[in-house]
Design a protein that fits this description.
The protein contains five helices and ten strands. α1 packs across α3. The protein is globular and about 40 Å long. It has a five-stranded antiparallel β-sheet with strand order 3-4-5-6-7, with helices on both faces. Strands 8-10-9 form a three-stranded antiparallel β-sheet, with helices on one face. The protein has a single domain, classed as 3-Layer(aba) Sandwich (Aminopeptidase), CATH 3.40.630.30. It is an alpha+beta fold. A hairpin with a 2-residue loop joins β9 and β10. Helix content is 31%, strand content 30%.
Length: 194
């Protein structure tokens, strides 16, 4: 897929879906999905106005993605963030996102993976497939050795995704007065998938 007429975007092909770095054109879909109650209940920080989302994608998320990808070339992603859209391969429909970054509330090393899939496409295994695609990329092409994830106790589907991806439950953490299950996945314990 081409962005602004000339730039090829980073993509991870996963069969019936693919992951691709955010473009300005994705801002509207991110806005719509992040404001769905099924998403905003679990990811309230993603809720925004249209104008905020365009600003965030344009001025923060796209530059952060570029910085991550440059750092990945040097095999050292440090504190960089990568935010990828999840798309249906057959239609190029944007259906969610899968991201990695530093979560300050977690014990070091505190790089996490997180995701959201539009309510219209939940229950099809896309969250698991997208997460495994990003996990495989991170463990294969960066210096990452450990990945974290958190899921609210009442987010049963997200907890199932973590288990399907091979994460081990470490216990519970309280973040901003909410109780989360805390998971860890080590590169040395990761089973190849997809």
């Amino acid at each position: 897929m081409i962005h602004n007429g000339s730039e090829v975007l980073f993509r991870i092909g996963l069969g019936d879906i693919y992951l691709q770095e955010f473009s300005v054109e994705d801002a509207e879909n991110i806005y719509k999905i992040s404001n769905q109650p099924e998403i905003s209940n679990f990811l309230p920080d993603w809720k925004s106005t249209r104008e905020q989302r365009v600003d965030w994608v344009t001025n923060y998320e796209i530059p952060a993605n570029k910085a991550f990808l440059e750092a990945a070339k040097a095999n050292n992603i440090d504190n960089q963030f990568l935010k990828l859209g999840v798309f249906i391969s057959a239609t190029d429909e944007f259906i969610g996102w899968c991201c990695t970054g530093i979560k300050e509330e977690l014990p070091a090393p505190n790089r996490e993976i997180m995701y959201a899939i539009s309510s219209d496409h939940q229950g099809n295994g896309y969250a698991t497939k997208a997460s495994l695609g990003l996990i495989n990329y991170l463990f294969s092409f960066t210096n990452l050795e450990i990945l974290n994830a958190v899921a609210l106790m009442n987010n049963l589907s997200s907890n199932k995704v973590m288990e399907k991806c091979g994460f081990s439950l470490q216990g519970k953490l309280t973040i901003e007065n909410e109780l989360y299950n805390y998971y860890v996945l080590r590169k040395s314990e990761c089973r190849p998938s997809l």
